[in-house]
Amino acid sequence: EELVERGNNAYYGRGVAQSYTAAADIYQAAAAQGSAEAAHYLGYMYQNGLGREISLSTAIDWYAQAAEAEYPQAQFTLGQLAETGTGTRRNLREALRWYRQAADNGYALAQLRLGMMHAQGIGTPVDFIQATYYSALAYHRGGNKVAAQLLETLLPYLPKLSTQLEYSTLWALPEHDSRPVGQVYQGSEVYLLEQLSRDWMVVYSPEARKVAYLNTRSFIPQTATAVGNLETR
Known about the structure:
Blueprint: H1 2-12, H2 20-32, H3 36-48, H4 56-68, H5 72-84, H6 92-104, H7 108-120, H8 128-142, H9 145-154, E1 160-163, E2 167-171, E3 180-185, E4 189-195, E5 200-205, E6 210-215, E7 219-221
Antiparallel strand pairs: 1-4, 1-7, 2-3, 4-5, 5-6
Helix pairs in contact: 1-2, 2-3, 3-4, 4-5, 5-6, 6-7, 7-8, 7-9, 8-9
């Protein structure tokens, strides 16, 4: 958006005199026209006293406007504020709600935080399946080393499956008939996250580096030590 770009130029001093106040004014005009990105930036400026007096309540209002428009970074920020009790009462249930929204919008930091909260039982019962699901998404979106370490810790607690067929197709979430996203071959191992029906399950494949749908009849169980259940996303 043109207004947001003008705000960025003022914020960083690109081609114009650097001015946080001017940037905030421009972002506010853009946010008033419905820009979620500008609303998020304005929230950040109120939170940190850049071109505006520090006001956490006003920052939260602007973050909320951006979050309701499905801006994932604002959703993640609201999750952080709710989790830490910054500018608002500490509320882990609210933090989880915002983190899930950001994670569903593909924000890797939110996916990682959800993985850690489910693994450690922060605001929710310990659930290694949920923790694996979100950690895998975070790792394979951004290669986060913390997510990789968390996955290594979690996988021994999950049901492990091995294919009987020469190869089996992995299908993209959320629709198993949408498009193939990879294959696993005879002898490959996958980890069960959710049994959807007699024919379909959600799995994590370390080899294919995917969380995906897989046809149940392709696989036989090797271990069965699952903890928790994968909730509907």
